[in-house]
Automatic annotation (TrEMBL), chain A:
UniProt organism field: Aliidiomarina soli
InterPro entries noted in UniProt: Cro/C1-type_HTH, Lambda_DNA-bd_dom_sf
Domain HTH cro/C1-type: 8-62
Family annotation (SMART domains): HTH_XRE (SM00530)
Keywords: DNA-binding
Descriptive protein name: Transcriptional regulator
UniProtKB/TrEMBL annotation, chain B:
Upper lineage: Bacteria, Pseudomonadati, Pseudomonadota, Gammaproteobacteria, Alteromonadales
Source superkingdom: Bacteria
Entry keyword set: Membrane, Transmembrane, Transmembrane helix
Protein name (database record): DUF3278 domain-containing protein
Transmembrane segments: 25-44, 50-70, 90-116, 136-154
Length: 68, 175
């Protein structure tokens, strides 16, 4: 099964945000953010789009199927 | 208020749901311990005093578990067709995997019990099994599995930041 990689931790740190602040901004739990960042959990399209809108970048830039 | 998790007017936040799930799992463990204690009174032959003490302990555990569970908020606004108030995505995933694994384990143990329980009981030396105790055993297995999976999935790992630390806070202190 293919896994999705993401740049959430990088983008979050570039913007100087904590996991809690990002979680509050898109109305999910901090656990959701931390498990997405560590790839223990692959989010739904809704959460992926929320993250993409928040970071103002295309969702395919934030989530990829290949490791950078 | 910037952080909705700290806003008392918006208390049922996703983070509150994580805490409610953890609290439910601990309550379920305590409740199951109470059931196991009550079952042990019937399984083993204790003196009258020990039996009464164990009965009190078992019932006490169940009462404390209920009192511990109610403030979690999980019971509020739960209707017949609304199975849960949990709407955080990761919490729902955790609940799904917990129910899924519990169902598989119960089905497996039921199949094993159907095939081998009579042989196992005769090997132990028990010739008649009360269905209540068998059902109690399955209840304990199912509930312990459910609670363990919830707590395992919601465990804190080294990669996680606490709610107080974060890059923003570090930048502020650097400034």
């Amino acid at each position: 099964m293919e896994e999705a990689y993401n740049r959430i931790a990088i983008e979050r740190k570039l913007r100087g945000l904590s996991q809690q602040e990002l979680a509050d901004a898109i109305r999910v739990s901090r656990k959701t953010i931390s498990t997405i960042e560590t790839r223990r959990f692959t989010p739904s399209v809704v959460v992926a789009l929320k993250l993409a809108y928040y970071f103002e970048m295309p969702v395919e830039t934030l989530f990829t199927l290949t490791k950078e | 208020m910037k952080h909705s998790a700290r806003n008392p007017y918006d208390a049922w936040t996703p983070d509150a749901q994580v805490e409610a799930l953890k609290r439910s799992a601990y309550a379920v463990f305590l409740f199951t311990f109470g059931i196991a204690v009550l079952n042990s009174v019937y399984w083993f032959e204790f003196s009258a005093l020990v039996s009464i003490l164990l009965l009190m302990l078992g019932i006490g555990c169940q009462i404390v578990a209920f009192i511990w569970y109610v403030p979690s908020g999980s019971l509020l606004d739960v209707g017949l067709f609304k199975s849960s108030r949990i709407d955080d995505e990761y919490c729902r995933q955790v609940l799904f995997s917990a129910y899924q694994l519990t169902a598989w384990l119960l089905l497996t143990t039921l199949a094993v019990g159907w095939l081998f329980l009579d042989k196992l009981l005769s090997w132990v030396g028990v010739h008649t099994a009360d269905p209540n105790y068998v059902a109690g055993g399955y209840l304990v297995i199912g509930v312990l599995t459910w609670g363990s999976i919830i707590l395992f999935q919601l465990r804190d790992t080294a990669e996680e930041e606490s709610s107080e630390e974060g890059c923003g806070k570090q930048e502020k202190t650097n400034d």
